[in-house]
């Protein structure tokens, strides 16, 4: 090796040593170490629930300091927590005053609040370490966003109740309006900021959407077997021409079917054959259809999947299929007995006027007309339906969302039956209903973000004065009366965060009794009027297409009193059982 190469290697080695010493802090005397502050905290509302996306500022001796890292601002996470690191000039702490300031649209600004700083030792490079933490409470404030979100929610309800436009259009128009206001007025003035697009997407409960879609597909395939027409024939054969017994059998069949299928689909399948039976007996089909739809709403209450309000409640509150069966089946059975007795007497004259001639010939005709059209497909459907219900029963143990069970059953059935999935998606999946739910979730989220839902919940809490019995009666009866005049689906969606709030603030509500109050009130109350439940609207609409009209008042006359009776029975049940 030449002398020149040795000199080059020595120079490179010396340079590397200098770089190492600089990086290890040996030359840190030229840049004195600062004070390092680690700050942790949380932003919570009055009920102790974390408030997300709060912008937090840190002030040291009155001046704002920026955190270390890429982010220049501090924002709370989904649970309301935040954590940040700061480097301050040496000697700043612990004598300096460290304060927290926070802000978020629709919340009062948190004025500078001091936090206590504690010394935590010395770092590896000689800098001093300090820690501080704090929990802060934020208070709601009424802003223009609050009034706009409230107005949109009320208008959506009015449009749906008055049937001024399709409920899906009404809900989606409301959702679009909320987002439009947020990104126009809300961009220039935070007091108009209602709901971010990201929060709108998070508000959509896909468990509800996929659960409904899966069950729609299963029922769509089941329709091809002729099962429900066959059940109608069997009902007439068992009744042997006795219209009173026939009405009771049809109500029971409808109630049981609605517990395992959704009640709207059950009525869609039952209506045509019921009208045919009524025409054969020469009675007004409404004498059979109204008791059926009433029974459908009662029976659907017994399970998680029977009625859309229950699907919403189960998904939001993380209640299992078994929870609904255990807590609601008993009272549903009692109310079904009352329903049978009531309508047998209510339509007594109509049933007595039925023309029952040549029973055997009629039974033979119905047997030929309403038979199973595809036995192999029926066996597949019943097998998959049994498997799906089994998954519903054990989904709590498996920590599996109910929607997974429904989708699994639907996909297995499509795969083994060879039914065209495109046909199912085009004709059997009720896309307007699914889109309605998606839009409704956004509208409710806007009301929740701006504080309307919390205000209603606090009003219920104040009126009940923290008494669980009063709260149970209030939730049950308010839900029942409101659901009679407003579609029970949007009403239930609005009530979900309110019940969640009450469960946290009223002693004894941890048992879940308020969830059952909401379920019974919304599902049973939907029986009160023509527009109270989707199944009611479907039934009256299909009957009108067949030439049999019933007015709003005529429907209310037949259903409002038995609705009040069943809700009164539920009041006793809830107060005694819980």
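Sequence proposed for the structure above (578 residues):
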């Amino acid at each position: 090796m030449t002398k020149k190469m040795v000199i080059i290697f020595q120079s490179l080695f010396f340079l590397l040593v200098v770089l190492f010493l600089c990086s290890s802090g040996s030359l840190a005397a030229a840049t004195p170490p600062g004070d390092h502050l680690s700050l942790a905290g949380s932003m919570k509302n009055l009920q102790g629930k974390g408030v997300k996306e709060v912008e937090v500022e840190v002030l040291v001796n009155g001046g704002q300091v920026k955190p270390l890292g890429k982010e220049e601002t501090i924002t709370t996470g989904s649970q309301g927590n935040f954590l940040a690191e700061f480097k301050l000039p040496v000697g700043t702490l612990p004598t300096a005053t460290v304060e927290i300031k926070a802000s978020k649209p629709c919340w009062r600004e948190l004025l500078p609040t001091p936090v206590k700083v504690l010394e935590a030792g010395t770092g590896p490079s000689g800098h001093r370490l300090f820690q501080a933490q704090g929990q802060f409470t934020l208070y709601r404030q009424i802003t223009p966003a609050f009034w706009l979100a409230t107005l949109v929610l009320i208008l959506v309800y009015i449009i749906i109740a008055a049937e001024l436009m399709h409920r899906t259009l009404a809900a989606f128009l409301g959702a679009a309006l909320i987002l439009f206001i947020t990104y126009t007025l809300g961009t220039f003035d935070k007091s108009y900021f209602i709901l971010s697009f990201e929060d709108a997407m998070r508000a959509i409960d896909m468990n509800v959407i996929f659960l409904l879609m899966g069950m729609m597909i299963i029922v769509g395939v089941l329709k091809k077997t002729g099962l429900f027409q066959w059940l109608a024939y069997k009902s007439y054969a068992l009744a042997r021409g006795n219209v009173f017994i026939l009405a009771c059998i049809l109500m029971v069949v409808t109630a049981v079917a609605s517990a395992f299928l959704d009640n709207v689909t059950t009525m869609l399948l039952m209506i045509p054959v019921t009208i045919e039976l009524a025409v054969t007996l020469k009675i007004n089909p409404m004498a059979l259809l109204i008791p059926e739809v009433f029974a459908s709403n009662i029976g659907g209450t017994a399970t998680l999947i029977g009625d859309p309000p229950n699907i919403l409640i189960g998904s939001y509150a993380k209640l299992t299929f078994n929870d609904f069966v255990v807590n609601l089946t008993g009272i549903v059975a009692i109310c079904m007995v009352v329903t049978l007795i009531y309508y047998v007497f209510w339509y007594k004259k109509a049933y007595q006027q039925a023309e029952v001639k040549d029973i055997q010939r009629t039974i033979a005709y119905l047997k030929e007309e309403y038979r199973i059209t595809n036995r192999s497909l029926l066996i597949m459907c019943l097998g998959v339906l049994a498997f799906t219900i089994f998954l519903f029963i054990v989904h709590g143990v498996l920590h599996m969302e109910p929607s997974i069970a429904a989708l699994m059953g639907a996909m297995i059935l499509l795969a083994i039956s060879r039914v065209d999935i495109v046909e199912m998606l085009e004709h059997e999946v009720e896309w307007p209903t699914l889109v309605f739910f998606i839009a409704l979730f956004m509208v409710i989220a806007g009301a929740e973000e701006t504080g309307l839902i919390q205000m209603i919940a606090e009003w219920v809490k104040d009126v009940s004065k923290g008494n669980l019995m009063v709260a149970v009666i209030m939730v049950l009866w308010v839900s029942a009366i409101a659901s009679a005049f407003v579609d029970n689906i949007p009403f239930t969606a609005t009530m979900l965060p309110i019940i969640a709030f009450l469960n946290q603030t009223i002693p004894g509500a941890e048992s879940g009794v308020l969830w059952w109050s909401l379920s019974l009130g919304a599902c049973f109350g939907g029986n009160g009027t023509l527009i109270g439940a989707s199944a009611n609207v479907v039934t009256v609409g299909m009957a009108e297409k067949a030439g049999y009209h019933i007015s709003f008042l005529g429907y209310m006359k037949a259903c409002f009193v038995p609705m009040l009776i069943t809700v009164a029975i539920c009041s006793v049940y809830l107060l005694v059982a819980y």
